[in-house]
Protein: Type I-E CRISPR-associated endoribonuclease Cas2
Organism: Xylanimonas protaetiae
Amino acid sequence: MIVVVLSVTPEKLRGELTRWLLEISASVYVGHASTRVRERLWLRIVEDVGSGRALMVWSARNEQRLAFRVHNHAWEPVDVDGVTLMRRRTAESDRIRQAKERRAAAGPRSPDGGVVELEEERAGDASSPRRAGWSRASQRRRGSAVEQRRRRQSGQD
């Protein structure tokens, strides 16, 4: 099963998709197609979408029983412990992703998983999250727990 959702796309692409899939609502297409056809449809969508957005979801043999791709979309798929979730892309998440890429290119991490490097990178930037992908509430909870632990260890508590 394949589901394709398009936004702000040319009529040419919409007509092309109706050759392979059924349009059940405006710019929403569903149908069955082989892997080869699905891959070629996606290449065609990416080629013709222009400045529009595209999202494709299909049945897969994995834990979620589905997989998806996005193009020019505010949401991006993120793998979390083998489960693919959708996360809204923001300027902050782009900055975090670039920092991760820089750290990965820099070489080995510290024994505690790179937390020291992350804190050094964001020195003076209080608006940055502590870790990528955590909710703001989780960041506040973890931030307060980290601060409490530091105070205990330094003997200030």
